[in-house]
Amino acid sequence: MTIDQHVDKLHTPQRFLQPAPQCEPPADSLMIRRPSARTERVLGSARRTPHSGTSGHGGTPGLSGISGPSAEPVAPGADVFWNTSLRLVLEVLDQRRSPAHLKSVLSPTVMELVQRLSVSHDPTRGLGAARTHRTHVNTASPCAAEVCATFRRGPRTFAIAARIENTDNKGWMVTALHVV
C-alpha cells in the first residue's frame, strides 16, 4: 500500500491509503506446470540423449541404444502418492500426526509397523523433525512401484523404502515399508 497526501479545503494534510498497482497478470490466466523431465525419467520413459549411455567407444556408432517406448512400465500417479505418503509417515514417526491419519494409505500390516515405531523410543527424534531429501520411484508393473527416499534429521541422513500398489477399489496403498 502507498500513502498519498491529500489537502482538503482548509489546507490541512490528510493521508489516505491506496492499493498497490497491479504488477502481475491475474492468477487464473496463468497455467503453472512443473517440469516433468525428472518425473518422466523416474517413471521409466526414455531419456532423450544422443548416446547409448555406455562409456568409451564400445557402442555402435549412430545408434542411440534407446528405441521406441521404454521397456519399463509406467505407473501414473505413483510419484505424487509416494511423496505425499512419505511426508505423512515421517510426521507420524515424529509424533506430529496421529497414526489414524494413515489408514487410507497404508495396508494393515504396515499400519501396525508405523504405529509401533511412532510410540517406540527413538533417540534420533532429538535431532529435529524429519525433512525429505530425495525420493525415487521405480515401477515394477503398471499397478505397482518400488520406492525409496532419504530424509534428514539435523545433520544425519536416513533412508526409507517401500512398495506401493494401486488397487482398483482403494487407489494407491503402501504395502511394505522399511525404515533404516
3D structure, described in words:
The chain is of the alpha+beta class and 180 residues long. 19% of the residues lie in helices and 30% in strands. The chain is built from three helices and six strands. The strands form two sheets. A four-stranded antiparallel β-sheet has the order 3-4-5-6, covered by helices on one side. A hairpin with a 2-residue loop joins strand 3 (131-141) and strand 4.
Features of the shown structure:
3 helices; two-stranded antiparallel ribbon; 4-stranded antiparallel beta sheet; 180 residues; 30% strand
SSE inventory with pairings:
Layout: E1 2-7, E2 13-18, H1 37-42, H2 78-93, H3 108-119, E3 131-141, E4 144-153, E5 156-167, E6 171-179
Antiparallel strand pairs: 1-2, 3-4, 4-5, 5-6
Provide a brief overview of the structure.
With 180 residues, the protein is α+β, with helices and mostly antiparallel strands. The protein contains 3 helices and 6 strands.
Order of SSEs, N→C?
EEHHHEEEE
The share of residues in extended strands comes to 25-35%
Helix content estimate: 10-25%
| Average of the residue pLDDT scores | 76
Would you report the number of β strands? Answer: 6
Q: Determine the N-to-C terminus distance.
A: 51 Å
**Approximate shape:** extended
Specify the number of helices. Answer: 3
Main sheet attributes: strand count, strand direction, barrel closure: 4 strands, antiparallel
